[in-house]
């Protein structure tokens, strides 16, 4: 310990000055890099918010808005959409930012829309409105949705998956980023008593948004929103004891809540087909779905 003792007062002063200078230099280096460090940390936390939002979206939102945010026909609108990012606020007359609009929609839902063109109502997610998500989780989902912006703005009119809304002030055929399109075809018959072809119904009633016709349903290849129909004839005969394949598919169309395949969310399948389709159309659709040659 005696070897560390400095007797010279001048040397002590010199060492003190050097130590002080070293501290000043070190502090200066910290200050010089602080802005960069804070910016990196801010980006890091922003990325974490998006990652957390992606997980929440996959578990709660993808079944309606699609795993890629491009919506499901007739089920829920697209979020990963050029039109959504550039024109949606104008359509609804909202004067705030799109991020605020998305956050408020997630938090409060759309409970006032008793009737809608979509099979699913937008539920309330924010805990302050009675939903299951904390405020920070609502923000994380919002950040994830807003992260679609760069990809969405790169979409061409043909690539944009936006599905026009029927309850806004802009006509349906003008809800596009390109030239106005022809009015969206309705699933209603062209004339009273007309029987629509099953393949046309499958498209017009938005069934293809949830069910893949060319993919088989198995434990390793499951449809994300609804079961795949590639091997429907085989699976339908074993779904519900006492029901034939034809009876099961008929029940699934007319009474979708009677049986829901394990692992899928109840309530997504519209319950109005028995009212909007004729008996002949339903029977034709059942036969077509079970036909391997379709």
What does it look like?
- The structure is a single chain.
- The chain is an all-alpha fold.
- Among the domains are: 65-174, no CATH class; 198-290, Orthogonal Bundle (Cytochrome Bc1 Complex, Chain D, domain 2).
- It has helices spanning 9-60, 62-65, 82-92, 98-108, 135-146, 149-153, 198-204, 232-239, 245-254, 273-276, 279-290.
- Helix 4 (98-108) packs across helix 5.
- It is elongated and about 110 Å long.
Strand content: under 5%
Which radius of gyration do the C-alpha atoms yield? 29 Å
What is the tally of helical segments?
A: 11
The poorly predicted ranges are none
Say what oligomer this is: single chain
Shape: elongated
How many strands appear in the DSSP assignment? 0
- Content-based structural category: mainly alpha
Describe the main β-sheet briefly.
none
**N-to-C SSE series?**
HHHHHHHHHHH
Distance linking N and C termini: 93 Å
* Helical content band: 40-55%
Average pLDDT value?
Answer: 85
Give a short synopsis of this structure.
With 294 residues, this protein is an all-alpha fold. The chain is 46% helix and 0% strand.
Topology:
Layout: H1 9-60, H2 62-65, H3 82-92, H4 98-108, H5 135-146, H6 149-153, H7 198-204, H8 232-239, H9 245-254, H10 273-276, H11 279-290
Helix pairs in contact: 1-5, 4-5, 7-11, 8-9, 9-11
Notable traits:
single chain, 294 residues, mainly alpha, Cytochrome Bc1 Complex, Chain D, domain 2, 11 helices, 0% strand
